[in-house]
Amino acid sequence: QKKTLILAIETSCDETSAAIVADGHIILSNIVASQIKSHMRFGGVVPEIASRHHVEQITQCIEEAMSQAKVTYQDLAAVAVTEGPGLVGALLVGVNAAKAIAFAHQLPLIPVNHMAGHIYANRFEAPLEFPLMALVVSGGHTELVYMEKDGVFEIVGETRDDAAGEAYDKVGRVLGLTYPGGKQIDQMAHIGQDTFHFPRAMIKENNYDFSFSGLKSAFINTVHNAEQKQIALNKEDLAASFQASVIEVLVTKTIRACQEYQVKTLVLAGGVAANAGLRATLKEQMACQLADIKLMIPPLALCGDNAAMIGAAAYISYQKEEWAGYDLNAIPSLEI
Ligand code: KG4
Ligand code: ZN
């Protein structure tokens, strides 16, 4: 039987990506052009620079994805693109590239929510079993999302301030790490010990919301106070203490949400899903507290932003024939 091939495009932040996905769960190609080097010296993503790089990279990324997958435009069933959330100028590059291709080759145009894409990155491992709870942790978002079935999302909790990845990156900057600091803190945390006992914000509150700005401030104050008194602190212990606080709050509240919503599956998603400590703690705690719930963690290569995950999410809309018109616009603060 002929496979449904979707060309997917992702340009929401600082990765220009194009992929060919078959039947929503087979990756034929997944090209990711990272711009991190261009943003590094500014300590974060500069929106204007991101947009310019996307413009420069997008055509080549798409051509590369097509040629690696050995497909032509005639083989495609649809074009999918991230419509939000993200940086508006960055999103617009992908949206306009997708529209142009859809128009030129008379293909259906499928808008995809970036966060849904992160969740569907897990679809490449195995079919999703519902109902499920997804802990989506990235540089821009931290959410617990309940899904009764494919394509239906309910936010049951979210961060009131900083996203988990954002806190990692800000704390990384204070430690003098290059942007983004998340991965380096994760590595340092495995050498250090939780000696600082930073606060576990909102852990006891009867809701599924999070807050990471207090932890970030506690961390920064600790470092600055030590600097003033010219005391040298152990950076690995600082990293371990910060990570212990983030993980304990995320895991505790996620497990509670899984229990209350009586889900079959817990799905981890987003850039911070690459965190070794978080992956290990979730596995451990799920095994002893919720052994009957299946835990899904995306492969490392699919945790960060990429177009394949957009192709997986798009396949659900494809089956329902949910197309967009040529008036499709980028929506920077799109909710899942
Ligand atoms: O999903 P993503 O690629 O982009 C957004 O949609 O935001 O996530 C990027 C975030 C960054 O904040 C980065 O520091 C964080 O994911 N990250 C990590 C790790 N790898 C990436 N945070 C903690 N531990 C990691 N191993
Ligand atoms: Zn993302």
Automatic annotation (TrEMBL):
Cofactor: how and how many bound: Binds 1 Fe(2+) ion per subunit.
Keyword Coiled coil part of the UniProt annotation: no
Cofactor: Fe(2+)
Assigned keywords, A-Z: Acyltransferase, Cytoplasm, Iron, Metal-binding, Transferase, tRNA processing
Residues where substrate binds: V136, V137, S138, G139, G140, D169, G182, D186, N275
Localization annotation: Cytoplasm
EC primary class: transferase
Pfam families: TsaD (PF00814)
Family, per entry: Belongs to the KAE1 / TsaD family.
Protein name per its UniProtKB record: tRNA N6-adenosine threonylcarbamoyltransferase
Species the sequence originates in: Isobaculum melis
Gene assigned in the entry: tsaD
